[in-house]
Design brief:
The complex is a heterodimer. By secondary structure, chain A is of the alpha+beta class. In chain A, 48% of the residues lie in helices and 18% in strands. Chain A has 8 helices and 7 strands. In chain A, the strands form 2 sheets. A 5-stranded mixed β-sheet of chain A has the order 1-2-5-4-3, with helices on both faces. Chain B is built from 3 helices and no strands. Chain B starts with a helix and ends in a 7-residue tail after the last helix. The chains are: A alpha+beta, B mainly alpha. At the A-B interface, helix 2 and helix 6 of A face helix 1 and helix 2 of B.
């Protein structure tokens, strides 16, 4: 996975992709206990949104490096990587405000915990709710920041429903 | 709650806290191992794996 993320960062450094951030289960693992997952979600911000959004340049650059498509992902150093356009306002904000993490020779960018929580709430599948409960139990979120994000993206009602259903003893 | 169950729950919580506190680059290595194990189980025990949850 380190090699995979190093290639993603290389794509960014070479201008193939714009600002990006790791989301999904891999993003959550930066804050929580890791849970088995089979792929990596990379959200990419397109600075100037073209009329028709295309990921073709990413696929072409990856093919040049020897990484081939596998379903709706690209197989990079053993992991299927999904490059997803950060077109929704919440996801775009999450990419813009992502945190840079550096260790050893690896630099990467991951969404903040509060954005991962808000996106999980917005997506709203059972596994998103399960992840959200893990975030709440871990107690790592900045509650003021989370509340601001939820308010900005009209998610306060959804949060109240979630809290009522999953966080009430 | 039965004290045995309470002890199991406490040790599970402690393990979760330990994993949560790992440095992120170590967690990436753990994700590699979890995925490898899942893929291996998919080959060797496909029936049992239906009950195992993965997330995206």
């Amino acid at each position: 996975l380190k090699k995979t993320l190093a290639i993603v960062e290389k794509l960014h450094a070479e201008g193939v992709i714009g600002p990006y951030a790791i989301g999904g289960a891999v993003g959550a693992a930066f804050y929580l206990e890791p849970v088995a997952t089979l792929d990596v979600d990379i959200f990419v911000l397109f600075e100037t949104a073209p009329l028709i959004l295309t990921l073709a340049p990413i696929y072409e650059a990856c093919a040049t490096l020897g990484y081939q498509p596998q379903g709706d992902a690209i197989h990079i150093e053993g992991w299927p990587v999904q490059f997803l356009p950060a077109s929704e306002p919440l996801v775009a904000e999450a990419v813009r405000e992502a945190v840079t993490r550096e260790a050893d020779d690896l630099t990467t960018r991951v969404m903040m915990a509060e954005h991962l929580m808000a996106i999980a709430l917005q997506t709203g599948r059972a596994k998103d709710h399960a992840r959200l409960v893990m975030f709440v139990e871990a107690g790592i979120a900045d509650n003021d920041r989370l509340r601001e994000i939820l308010a900005r993206h009209s998610l306060l009602d959804d949060w109240a429903k979630f809290a009522n259903r999953f966080l009430t003893p | 709650v039965n004290t045995d169950i309470q002890q199991i729950m406490q040790s599970k919580d402690a393990e979760r806290r330990r994993l949560r506190a790992l440095p992120w680059h170590e967690k990436l290595e753990m994700l590699d191992r979890l995925r490898d194990r899942h893929l291996m189980l998919r080959k060797t025990h496909p029936q049992e794996l239906r009950a195992v949850r993965t997330v995206t």
